[in-house]
Amino acid sequence: MPTETFTNDAIDIDALPKYEEIPLRKPDTNYWKIICINLIITFLLIGVSAGLLIFFNEKIQPHAILISITYITIAIFSILLFYVSFKKRGYAIRTKDVIYKSGIIAESTTIVPLNRIQHIELNEGFFSRMFKLGSLQIFTAGGQTGHIHIAGIPIDEAKSIRDLLLNKLELVETPETEI
Amino acid sequence: MNSDFSKPQRESAFGIIVMAAHTAFKIGKATFFFIVYAFIKMGPAYTTYALLGIGIIIVLCIIFSYLWYLKFTFFLDKEKQEFVVNKGILNRDQVIIQLDKIQQVNINQNLLQKMIGVYGLKIDTAGASGEEVSIKAIDEVSAYNLKEHLLKGKAAAIDQSDILIEKDALIEQIPFLKISSWTLFKVGLTSNYGQSLTVILVFFMYTVQEARHIMDIFELDKGYVKSTVLGLATLFSVAVIVVIFLMVLLFINLIRTFYKYFQLEVSHHKNSLLLSSGVIAKKNTLINPNKVQITKHSQNYFQKKLNLLNISLKQAHFGESKKGKEMQGNTLEIVGCDAIERDQLLKMILGQVPISGKTFAPDWRFLNLPIFFKLVLPVAIFLIVAFNVQEVKPYIGFAAAYFLIGIFMISISYRRHRIAVDQDFIIKTSGIWDISKEVIVPHKIQAITASQYPWHKSVDVGHLCLHTAAGQIRFKYGNYSEIKKLVNFWLYQLESGNEDWM
User: Fold this and answer.
1) What is the 3-class SS of B212-232, one letter each residue?
2) Full residue range of the structural domain in which residue B369 is found
3) Cβ of A11 and B453 within 8 Å?
4) Are the CB atoms for B327 and B344 separated by under 8 Å?
5) Do B191 and B219 reside in the same domain of the chain?
6) pLDDT tens track for B99-157
7) More confident residue, B309 or B157
8) Any A CB within 8 A of B47 CB
9) Given phi > 0 = left and psi -120 to 50 = alpha, else beta, which region is B196?
10) Within this chain, do residues B64 and B189 fall inside the same structural domain, yes or no?
């Protein structure tokens, strides 16, 4: 046994790179506009249907004020929640993993090592395309909860991240296929 | 009988019979009540027509099975390392399974297959549920040869000298773990109450619904039936009903345990583990120990006294989640082994008996949410109702009992919630009645999530979730700085090595 060349040093856990100290990139500010557009569309649809219901159903008419107050509070509340969650989002690509931070109330950070990525998807929605944004989905074998969905990345950057990750994936997989 | 699967081939011709019976059984099961109604409603004059109808269905089944048999071929592509199945009567379907994605191969025999003398072979992959392949009729030697090829993957392809396993060799395998009927009896008395309860409930609901249908058909007087049932209910006191119910529960539990695990044996079979059990038809399952993602063993108070343990081996069950489909039931259970057998099994699967490393305990804040949502809130609502509704008032004592039992159970779950981290193993302990230990190896982790509520920032408390291909391992309300350290450590382990998780 080549005992001279074999080393097995104790790992200094404190000296390991710390994921929590990595500066995170924020989603593009235009993405907030897309969130707003989506919210407005949703609430417009709900509002129109509620309005029609109130207009045609006489039994509901006395409650119209109550309904509109709840409607407005829910609308304001969701805009606030979305704004908070938008502010909390952040992502970073390290040489060996992808970090994504998100959350509405709780702040959660998910880390996917590059050698565990199954596949990558780049989506462009209708409104995203207008603002030249894209969203990147990173899938692992860890099920629905083990995925990362980073929305609101400028499309050029998203594409370059995708290519970078795909390149790394191939690098990881080639030694295996050669054995 | 052959050992070379490189050319497309059909399954055994007996497959027509098996497939026909299978289809007829499925149709029969789906239309059982319809047929019964039809017989009752139509009267004897039309019996010949009804029988003719059934005859036509059977003939159609046989024709369908014959066509299905003609179109169903399979072969092993050794160069590409794929198992290819062609099927489909009208449309051509081709299922391609990469050999290294195969998780387990099941070889079993139902009653009909046993009579004809063929075996069924089923292949489970890590993919979505639709991609599974099942060969309905294949002779025993071919079945085991094919299994050997499928599970060996790359090694088999290079080694061209195909090893023929003789039938005798299979039988002579000495199992290192054998569960006796007496042990099964003990297991049946002490475990899986919850599952049996659901079985009873489902059966009860089903009967009630069908009984209603039948009453509709016979135009029975519903009021009469209802009063008889109520009369029966008052005849026995509540205590008697509870006792009877518990007896039925235990009885069903016993039957289920015996049915599922009768003569359970585990043996070492080349590189894989062979599990076999069953009453009439023996079910054989072969798994590759490397593909087990989570190894879990659990024990409750009674079982601890009897030195019994239940082990479950969880394999990857997520497909391409793009489709949002998740495959269930990829868990293998080995019930009723003792501590020594458990260690033997763990050694076989994990390479060594896992060592409990540094243990982390949750913060006391772990108690807050369950106590509030499961105890304080329901009890408060109940009390408000009780003080306003006269009929509920006498039952206020129950609320106190519920509260006390609840506190007791939640505090037990808090005391059991632990995670132990070692260089090579992560062991998560949890449970109230059944105390379970889930063991994973760091390189089976797919992704890690650490999360924290803003109001826990100052007290440094947070949560951890390890995503594996067979489910998640959560550790709640731990010291957040320590969790972060652990995450960094696991990331280092995952990213510095390149060990295969499947």
Assistant:
1) HHHHHHHCCCHHHHHHHHHHH
2) 358-496
3) no
4) no
5) yes
6) 777 777 888 887 888 888 888 888 876 654 445 678 888 888 888 888 877 777 544 43
7) B309
8) no
9) alpha
10) no
* Exposure letters B178-192 (e unless 16+ CB within 10 A, then b): ebeeebbebbbebbb
In this structure, the answer to whether residues B256 and B269 fall within a common structural domain is no
Give the 3-state DSSP-derived string for A77-111, with helices as H, strands as E and coil as C: HHHHHHHHHHHHCEEEECCCEEEEEECCCCEEEEE
pTM of the model: 0.73
Same domain, B334 and B295: yes
In contact, A137 and A148? CB cutoff 8 Å: yes
Q: Which of A136, A113, A138 lies closest to A125 in space, CA to CA?
A: A136
Structure letter (DSSP) for residue A26 = P
Maximum Cα–Cα distance across chain B: 84
Question: Which of B491, B496, B501 should one mutate to test binding to chain A, selecting the residue with the greatest count of A CBs within 10 A?
Answer: B491
Same domain, B126 and B91: yes
Across the range B439-445, mean pLDDT stands at 90
Q: Are B161 and B149 in contact (CB under 8 A)?
A: no
Measured between CA atoms, the residue of chain A closest to residue B484 is A20
The Cβ of residue B173 has, within 10 Å, a number of other Cβ atoms equal to 13
Answer whether residue B225 shows pLDDT above 80: no
**CA distance to partner chain B, nearest, from residue A22 (Å):** 12
- Per the CB < 8 A criterion, the answer to whether B263 and B179 are in contact is yes
End-to-end CA distance of chain A: 23
Instruction: For residue B216, give every residue at least 6 positions away whose Cβ sits within 8 Å of its Cβ, in sequence order, or none.
Output: none
The answer to whether residues B281 and B107 touch, using CB atoms and an 8 Å cutoff, is no
Q: How remote is the C-alpha of A107 from its chain's centroid?
A: 13
For B455-490, write each residue's pLDDT tens digit. Answer: 999 999 999 999 988 888 999 999 999 999 999 999
Quick check: B449 and A111 CB within 8 A?
A: yes
Q: Report CA-CA distances (Å) from B214 to B135, B202, B226.
A: 39, 18, 14
Longest dimension (CA), chain A: 90
Distance (Å) from the alpha carbon of B435 to chain A's nearest alpha carbon: 25
B34 and B165 housed in the same domain: yes
Pairs from B111-115 (Cβ < 8 Å, separation ≥ 24): B111/B280, B111/B281, B112/B17, B112/B18, B112/B21, B113/B18, B113/B137, B113/B281, B114/B280, B114/B281
- A147/B488 Cβ within 8 A: no
CB B302 within 8 A of CB B190: yes
Confidence of residue B319 (pLDDT cuts 50, 70, 90): very low
pLDDT band at B418 (very low <50, low <70, confident <90, very high): very high
The mean predicted confidence, pLDDT, of chain B is 80
Q: Are B196 and B252 in contact (CB under 8 A)?
A: yes
Domain assignment present for B10: no
- In the structure encoding, which two tokens stand for residue B388, read together? 């306003």
Tens digit of each residue's pLDDT (9 = 90 or more) over B17-67: 888 888 888 888 877 777 777 777 766 677 788 788 888 888 988 888 888
pLDDT score of B242: 82
* Assigned domain for B176 exists: no
Residue B153 is predicted with a pLDDT of 56
Could you tell me the sign of the dihedral formed by the alpha carbons of A153, A155, A160, A165, in that order?
Answer: positive
